[in-house]
Amino acid sequence: MIHARGLTRHFRVKKETVAAVNGLDLDVEEGELVAFLGPNGAGKSTSLRLLTTLLPPTAGTATVAGYDIRAEPAAARERIGYIGQGKSSGDYFRVADELFSQGRCYGLSRAEARNRAGELLAMLDLEALAKRYANTLSGGQRRRLDIALGLIHRPKLLFMDEPSAGLDPQNRANLWEHILRLRQEYGTTIFLTTHYLDEADAMAERVLVIDHGRVIADDTAANLKANLAGDLINVVVDEPARAAELAPPAKEVLVDGDLVTVRLAGQATAALPKYLRELYRDGITVRSADLRRPTLDDVFLGLTGRTLRESDAA
Ligand SMILES: Nc1ncnc2c1ncn2[C@@H]1O[C@H](COP(=O)(O)OP(=O)(O)OP(=O)(O)O)[C@@H](O)[C@H]1O
Q: Which parts of the chain span the membrane according to its record (predicted)?
């Protein structure tokens, strides 16, 4: 459904060239739900804009829904939906009218546009809001309207740039219910960016990590965690420096006050009791101890040297 090879986009900024997307290779098959993750400035939005034909590439090729984005951008556009970070609807249009008129813009007949609007209002739980002006909707409702608008022409492939950004946990969960229902009912292929790693972990079948304009990891969240990040041991002790020396073989051992964090190379459930025995034998008092499985954020740290939270704050 999406096949990109060497996709590249440079920008000129004050005589300097910024390689926003730098030789991107990716493949997404029909029906997949793929999360596209990366720190700020990694090139996610630019990649989406290239793949949705909003921006021409500097180099490289891509086919989207079977059409070459350079040679046949209009044909590609007809088959894809794009939900960007901005609002897709005008503030002073009523929800149902906006769906109807955007349907007409896509060439649907009046009857088709009315039917499609009705179907999407039901699908996205917007029926009760059909007569409301878009600017009176809550953040979550407005996001659902954006999705309905992105689906008006029945795209086989939907791109979403940060669909749940700025929503509270309840609205995020509700939005995801709708996204998953959409897949189930229409078999829509979904390619989305998100800063919520828990969301990518739970919902996406595959996770692509991009940094400096290139894909640096491509696998299921479970495989990424198993292969790229190890378990973490945390112990709070009375002699942290000595406890750090006794740590099992690890990628990294960090001491912060009386807390010692041991980042292991892989899954190692047995490492904690063994380490505790060592500490006990050495006369070190352990106040607390736990072993934590890695999260996608740990994968991120391993791959990019940054956690997504740090890069968010940057
Ligand atoms: N129109 C533009 N002109 C100049 N530089 C740009 C332009 N658009 C993007 N860039 C630069 O390209 C790089 C990639 O930006 P992009 O917006 O694709 O990243 P991103 O991964 O989507 O980031 P974020 O998570 O912050 O949205 C950044 O260094 C950005 O400053």
A: none
